[in-house]
Amino acid sequence: RIINMKKILKCTLVVLVMLCMILTITGCGKKNKSKQEYDKDNETIANQSENNNSEPTKNTTTTNNVNDEPHINIATEEIKKALKDKNWINSHLLTDSENFQDGTKKLTFICLKKDTNNSPIIIAEEFIEGYIYCKSTLITYNNGKIETQTICDGLMREISVEPNKRLIQVTSSHTGLSTYSFSEVKNNNISFIEWIAQPMDENAEDLGYSYGTDDNTNKTITKEEFDNIKNKYDESKFVSIDTELTDENIDKYIK
Fold it and tell me: How many CB atoms are located within 10 Å of the residue 48 CB?
């Protein structure tokens, strides 16, 4: 009997050990499976997140494309409306000085090639003959409103433009020098490039040639350097601003 009891205990012990081994193996399998499923879920979430993050950019681009044409139409109509408004013209484009009452005034305009947002870019010029007085103004439409920027305003000045390159050349004569200032219209703003100056005649030759990139720089250069810079711009087809600002011309040219 004692021997039989020992056999039974041994068998029971063997069975228990085998059960423990089976449970351990099964548990590890489930654990590995859970880890694989967890990793797979993470990958899915990451992919969804990446897709979600990329979608707004795509939607924004589509939205902008859809809204471009209405924006251009609004900008065009608002600018045309302003240029037909005598009060707006008086307060934004004309000088209020009483010194030029006896001068013959001309108000003209030109359209530049459209910039990045495709809304109209206009330069208007008030020119008073006899004084060689020029006031020129850049007119654009930004952030839902018309904006104006003064390009030049003074005596003995003239402006010409290269509409396709949106280049502006202002020439002025004072203190014995002829000065040429060059700017461009970028993103609906005036961006100054550089200026050069030369003696007006033989009597002013001692003034020499000069160059600058803003009002605070004045560097002496040679005549050859002056000519090289001037020739670079002479290759552009600058034209004067001659189209009279009338309701008919506004409708004809501003589109």
Answer: 10
152 near 159, Cβ under 8 Å? Answer: yes
Tokens 């004309």, located at residue: 94
SS3 122: strand
The label of the residue with tokens 């439409």 reads 141
pLDDT tens-place string over residues 42-71: 444 334 333 333 332 222 222 233 345 666
Q: Which pLDDT score is estimated for 27?
A: 52
Q: How far apart are CA 84 and CA 92, in angstroms?
A: 12
Name the DSSP class of 214.
Answer: S
- Angle ∠(101,106,111) on CA atoms, nearest 5: 145
Summarize the confidence of residues 148-160 as an average pLDDT: 94
Tokens encoding 69: 């044409």
Q: How many residues does the chain have?
A: 255
Whose CA is closest to 151, among 114, 112, 117? 112
- Mean pLDDT (the chain) is 79
Pairing of strands 177-186, 219-221: unpaired
Helices (H), the chain: 2-83, 86-92, 223-234, 247-253
